[in-house]
Amino acid sequence: MKELQNRIMIEGVAVNSEILKVDSFVNHQVDPALMLHVGQEFAEHFKNRGITKIATIESSGIAPALMTAQCMQLPLIILKKQPSKVLNDSLYQTQVTSFTKEMSYELSVSSKYISENDHVLIIDDFLANGEAATGAIRLLRKAHATVAGIGVLIEKTFQPGREKLAAQGIEVCALARIRHMEAGHITFAD
Ligand code: 5GP
After folding, report:
1. Secondary structure class of 17 (helix, strand, coil)
2. For the whole model, what pTM was predicted?
3. Tens digit of each residue's pLDDT (9 = 90 or more) over 28-85
4. How far is CA 28 from each of CA 21, 81, 119, rounded to the nearest angstrom?
């Protein structure tokens, strides 16, 4: 998606060879017009697949996921990061390792909102090592739903996320693919 690539070129900050900051239009300040275009791209890519719900991990995926849900006229499910000691019969839970924060967290979803009748599209901001996406897939499968695919704004192709998801039979749609980064310089894959 050219518009997203341009914004990354102009405003993205490669902190080092692994971490890209997009705080001025995705992660801290959010550009609604760009997010709407992102939602339209995902809606077009994943149309006619029998998708019943959009899911994202709180919090940075919420803006693009909400726009995708609006464009597809579907509900958005926010997978919650909660303390692991919460015991609740109506919650499905799974442990995920965070790439940026170098820590683990418990991801949960209520059985009220996901069931075996759901075919779910996952939307997130970044795909790096694929741990967040794999955790979301595991959680949705625990809830007996099926996963239609995953849409990410930014994929870092030098990290193994896509291979990890392909090995599980999950299709990835990435709107911008970064092949290489170093402080002050970003190279796209396409
Ligand atoms: P993964 O689980 O694929 O390694 O990482 C995915 C999650 O880590 C994303 O949801 C995102 O929040 C965060 N993340 C991974 N790489 C980056 C990055 O380069 N920049 C930012 N801002 N977040 C990232």
Report:
1. coil
2. 0.95
3. 999 999 999 999 999 999 999 999 999 999 998 999 999 999 999 999 999 999 755 5
4. 10, 18, 30
Domain ranges of the chain: 2-79+115-188
Q: How far apart are CA 74 and CA 83, in angstroms?
A: 28
Beta bridge partners of 124: 152
Phi, psi (degrees; rounded to nearest 5) at 60: -75, -15
Q: How far, in Å, from the CA of 126 to the mean position of ligand 1?
A: 5
Ligand 1 atom at minimal distance to the Cα of residue 60:
12
Does the domain spanning 2-79+115-188 belong to CATH 3.40.50.2020?
A: yes
Protein residues with CB under 6 Å of any ligand 1 atom: 19-21, 27, 60, 99-100, 124-133, 161
